[in-house]
Design goal:
GO terms for molecular function: pyridoxal phosphate binding; transaminase activity. InterPro entries: DegT/StrS_aminotransferase (IPR000653), PyrdxlP-dep_Trfase (IPR015424), PyrdxlP-dep_Trfase_major (IPR015421), PyrdxlP-dep_Trfase_small (IPR015422). Keywords: Aminotransferase, Pyridoxal phosphate, Transferase. By secondary structure, the protein is α/β, with parallel strands linked by helices. The protein has two domains: 240 residues, 3-Layer(aba) Sandwich (Aspartate Aminotransferase, domain 2), CATH 3.40.640.10; 127 residues, Aspartate Aminotransferase, domain 1 (Alpha-Beta Complex), CATH 3.90.1150.10. 39% of the residues lie in helices and 15% in strands. The protein has 13 helices and 14 strands. It has a seven-stranded mixed sheet, with helices on both faces. Strand 10 and strand 11 form a beta hairpin. The longest helix has 18 residues. Bound molecules: pyridoxal-5'-phosphate.
Amino acid sequence: MKKIQMVDLVSQYQKIQDQVDKAILDVVRSSAYINGPEVKAFQSDLESYLGVKHVIPCANGTDALQIAMMALGLKPGDEVITATFTYVATAEVIALLGLTPVLVDVDEDTFGLNTDQVREAIGPKTKAIVPVHLFGQCADLETIMQIAKEHNLYVVEDTAQAIGSSYYFENGSSAKAGTIGDIGTTSFFPSKNLGCFGDGGAIFTNDDDLASKIRIIANHGQTVRYYHDMIGVNSRLDSIQAAILRCKLPHLDEYIKARQAVADYYDQAFANTPELKTPVRDSKSEHVFHQYTLQLAEGIDRNKLVEYLQTKDIPAMIYYPVALHMQKAYQDERYQKDDFPITNRLVSRVFSLPMHTELEKDQLEHITSEVLNFIKNH
Ligand SMILES: *Cc1c(COP(=O)(O)O)cnc(C)c1O
């Protein structure tokens, strides 16, 4: 059996190595490292894949969120609602810009924003909502878009973990994650579902005005070279990364299917184990399984489970052990710990099993049988 990894980037690379190596060498030979033709080509490939009018590549997923926030023209003190159970980047950029992150709890099945709490959190200073499509499944976008419409708020979808997922509306229509709110953002960090070989990110929008503002902000706020109309940042996807992403994008749907097949295997193996709550698949969103995250029943020691798996050469991770409302940097007198009962339980109960495109049957058998072994003996 091959060594089990949380993410196996080497095996995935080897399958398309000739093509990727050539794409990298072509960029090196042309030396068009910055804003080369590969960046434009990838942008247009991704626009077609997502069915969105504008893709603006940038340096990473955190920058994508920051630039999106900057493009909305918010003022210091404006409030932005987001989840407390997420990766820190989402709240970080809000706070960095002098805006106020307003944290809310999540839904216990989908880990998406809890829409009842979103409604309660809206006040006169609220300007935007940032749903995070955590672990690969969309938040309740239909309700979030409805709330945003009622209160005239922007929606920025953090799609770093859910690129390629489709969202299905009540009326039968569907759209790709990240193309439904005013702006969508994503990351091409190597371990994401569409990863490059370093840092990368992108911003999506169907709005022409926002797109042109985003392009200007990502390029030092300049409209014409050396004329700066806005305060901007320097955030570019480099040509080598774009060339790699162009090779990988045509495989994204197949990568998603491979992840879903792993999830199906885990689901079946754990179906009759009440101590394990497997990921709930919402009928309104395709789950693209950035992570396969289970909830362990109360009374079973999660750390012991993770340690036990380690002794069997099975990596398992805890995403995320500390919610934002409990982080030193994000503590705020407006919150009490008890305001987030679902997240408080999740941080002590969730664990994620290896999830990637190259998992093999014997590895899955080993992982599931050892998880079940531990549960049986505890
Ligand atoms: C990875 C991630 C980001 C940040 O992306 P980087 O490319 O690492 O900056 C933002 N939000 C979420 C939910 C993520 O998972």
